[in-house]
Specification:
Elements: H1 5-10, E1 34-37, H2 49-53, H3 57-60, E2 68-70, E3 76-78, E4 83-88, E5 94-99, H4 113-124, H5 126-129, E6 139-143, E7 150-155, H6 175-181, H7 186-195, H8 198-210, E8 228-233, E9 239-243, E10 256-260, H9 266-271, E11 277-280, E12 298-313, H10 322-329, H11 334-345, H12 368-375, H13 379-382, E13 389-393, H14 399-412, E14 418-421, E15 434-437, E16 443-446, E17 452-457, H15 459-462, H16 473-486, E18 489-502, E19 505-506, E20 525-526
Helix pairs in contact: 4-7, 11-14
Amino acid sequence: MAQVGAALTAVAVALSGCSTGEPDPTRHEISHFGYAVNSSLATTNAASLLGVATDAALLSARIYAPVYVQGPSGQMIPNTDLATTQVLPGANRQVIYTINPEANYSDGEPVVCDDFLLAAKAGMLPAVFNAHIPLAEQIDRVECSSGSKQATVVFKGDQGVRWRHLFAQGTLLPAHAIAARARLTLEELNTALRTNDLQTLEEPARIWNDGFKLDNFDPELQVSSGPYRITGVGEFGEVELGRNEHYSGDPAVLDQLVLWPKGSDHNALAAAGNLQLADVESWASAEWVNRDDPLNPYDISEKVGELTEQLTLASAGVFYAPEARQAFAACVDQATVAAASSSVSGIAVPPADIQTVHLDNPVVAQLGDIRARYAEVNPTRAAALAGTTIRIGYDGPDTRKAAMVEAIRLSCEPAGITVVDAAHEAVSLNDLSRTVVADSGYEQYTEGSLDAVLRAVEPNLEFPSVNSTGADPESTRTAEEAVWAEMPSIPLAAQPRVFVIDRGVGNVVVNTDLSGIGWNMDRWSRSEGMNR
């Protein structure tokens, strides 16, 4: 956390679990395998409004593994340790998920179709669950007999083209544990989900949303289906992982490791020999590495990432109308924002003028007219918002994102728009002013403290209206025009990534997606005698 500072320097390797006593100063003599990430590590629920804003997938990818793992080249790798899939022919796309008979949670309970039903319905009922699973809005229904090892997802009309991105990392949570905490049987939860029994779902939805936060870690609720499970959360926000002995796949090579959150004292951790890897976004976050030292034990990898950094805009308040969102976009200069990010990170990232596909997708080159039209700064159009104040939040503190917001402030100032940096630790999309359509069909409004959240997104997951793989110009053009017209977000730039890897660690494969370098952390190994 941001408050670690000098305290962590004194007890850099203290892993106090959930204890409330004074830190034991002798704990610095214990060697811990450490992995630092650029996240507050606020929750393991990557589909919650808190999880998507704080990059929860960096932690939860190997705790709640996806059906398809996104590899380092963007390939979608079937995770047969969890399930296999079959697409049925017909007018409506149907996907059968057959769960591995040996797939179990760390408490010994089986992974069942109810877990898939819960994940899908959370996204289909975002007002109930406070969830952000855009692709779930394309689902018509999920067929699941409670306790079964098979689920069938039926999509609306011809939708569901991006179905492989459904049930992503950190979204398949343990339905049995949530039901038990809500004092329901699994069958009762299943019935409530299938029938949209909102009264019965009120408590399970609250647990789904709040119970996976890590400031009050609940080991009986946060049971794992992946190769690792959480064994404790320390006083500095560090998360200790241990091998999940009930995992159906190959056991994790390392029996334990520790994830350190944004704001941890990397210098102290490295000096104590307890920082082996780091997945950060700028050289400012890797200052403990002396690149000029021939005895430096780390390899450095700098990448222009796959993710797109964007402003997710409020759907109520000042941004209730698409015209208002379009006016704000007209004053955002992506080129200067990208330059600000590049200056701080030390990695030259390109501006983002496309939304629905990765910036390096070959199809982007054929959409030059759309890109030029929407990336152009238009002070006259932006003046429609003159006199308004736009509050932008992000998971802070973060020097690089602060520079990006400052660039937006400067480019919007001539149009009479005041931009305020409203970052705070563990930001959430729930902080946005929001409009949601209730089950009754009426709109409900929630006033928030923010008008926009700056975060990195995976384009294939983000837009419920997109039904294109991005493989051809025509369908991508249609998707882009629709998203720019609605304007739920404003693309800014590619995300920079800096990876620091101890040379004594093996099987590390750099990946710049939502899971980050930890996408295969269960395969990491350490050399014999390694004391770091």
